[in-house]
Amino acid sequence: MDGILAVWKPAGWTSHDVVAKVRRIIKVKRIGHTGTLDPDVTGVLPLCIGRATRVVEYVQERPKSYEAEMKFGIATDTEDVSGTVLTELPSVTITEDDIRRVLATFIGDIEQVPPMFSAVKVDGKRLYELAREGQVVERKSRVVTIHKLELLEMKLDQPHPTIRFSVECSKGTYIRTLCVDIGQALHVPAVMVKLTRTMSGGFTEADCFTLEDIAQLMASGDLVSKLTPADQAIDHFPRATVSSDNVQRAFQGKRIALHSLLEHDPFEADAIIRLYGEDGTFAGLFEQDQETASLKGVKVFTPTA
């Protein structure tokens, strides 16, 4: 069984829990997820199954989208409402104009400091392990990209105002930290209340199956037909086509001369390219070797027996 299965992760499950459950249902060990979701977070969790695990890193690179709810006037050690309250103001007054003005400043490349309760490693140890020991260590800021940020709903007529927003962002963006940083820009503490991932790896909620769905599809023998082929999940890479003979050369580990490409999308010198035969056979991912004017394999999908 090979392909990608988009799962709708329920609240209360870790990403590893979901992988373990699907392994038991479909009786396949080789499964990898494409981006950790905290236990309280629901949403899109693409699983790469079988040989599709070879493209996990490329699916992870694609932008992700979320819907988040945040509250002003409260701060916690985890940056969400599951943590210990560090600060709680009696009341906060914020205007819609202030919120819209501040949100606009977060679109583009921004710097984020990963939260202590995160899986980022410092000196070989994950930050959340250090945080559970009561340690707070210095973390280096990282540049992430906010592609879109849209205000969806506001409830400003309460002591601790809340807003709901959608965001499309790059890999490695912490939405909890984004909420805290939005609060800081408004000069008030803030905390994330709720988070749903609405898109990951090009998959949306409409593409997802619940764990119950997966069990039923497996029982009926229909699950394989629901898997997305690995190459479709990385269609952000340019495509090139070669003859059937050259596909066989690729499967043998040989390089493919650039002049032998029959057709191709425009691509940059450092691009990763999806290579196909004339009959649509996916040969794998290739990169350009400029010295020899050829393509060399990065991930070759040699047919299995």
TrEMBL record:
Its EC number is 5.4.99.25. The keyword Zinc does not apply. GO terms for biological process: mRNA pseudouridine synthesis; tRNA pseudouridine synthesis. It holds the Pfam family TruB_N. Keywords: Isomerase, tRNA processing. It catalyses: uridine(55) in tRNA = pseudouridine(55) in tRNA. SUPFAM superfamilies: Pseudouridine synthase. CDD domains: PseudoU_synth_EcTruB. Coiled coil: none annotated. The active site is at D38 (nucleophile). It is an enzyme of class 5 (isomerase). Residues 23-175 form the Pseudouridine synthase II N-terminal domain. Residues 176-233 form the tRNA pseudouridylate synthase B C-terminal domain. One of its GO terms (molecular function) is tRNA pseudouridine(55) synthase activity. Responsible for synthesis of pseudouridine from uracil-55 in the psi GC loop of transfer RNAs. Belongs to the pseudouridine synthase TruB family. Type 1 subfamily. This is tRNA pseudouridine synthase B. It comes from Paenibacillus albus. The lineage of its organism: Bacteria, Bacillati, Bacillota, Bacilli, Bacillales.
